[in-house]
Write a structure and sequence with these properties.
Layout: E1 2-3, H1 7-19, E2 26-27, H2 31-39, E3 44-46, H3 54-61, E4 67-71, H4 77-82, E5 84-87, H5 92-103
Parallel strand pairs: 1-2, 1-3, 3-4, 4-5
Length: 110
């Protein structure tokens, strides 16, 4: 599940991840919380600036789902402790690699 406020970036992520073989859902508003609970993704990619305060709410709702943060600046130390962070701009291939690692069973990680 990719949560990003910019529609153009959502479309780019959708096309790229689909080409990489991922099943992808996107959201950019209040539907993010609903999709998070209805779809139960293997990983969530989140831009915390999504809507006023919604990114923070998503952070509290995400629970057991591995989280990758996409941000224009360095996230808070608390956020950095619980997830992988990518500062924009970043290489899409690096993001795809981070997703593959996040969904890999713990015993298989190097």
């Amino acid at each position: 599940l990719v949560a990003e406020p910019e529609d153009l970036l959502l479309e780019i992520y959708m096309l790229f991840f689909a080409a990489e073989g991922f099943e992808v859902a996107t959201c950019n508003g209040d539907d993010c919380i609903k999709q998070l609970h209805d779809w139960q993704p293997h990983v969530m990619v989140l831009e915390p600036e999504i809507l006023d305060g919604l990114g923070e709410r998503i952070l509290t709702e995400v629970g057991h789902v591995p989280l990758i943060i996409l941000s224009r600046g360095a996230p808070s130390p608390t956020v950095q402790e619980r997830c992988v962070c990518h500062i924009k701009p970043f290489r899409m291939s690096a993001l795809a690699d981070a997703i593959r690692v996040a969904v890999m069973p713990t015993g298989d990680r190097l």
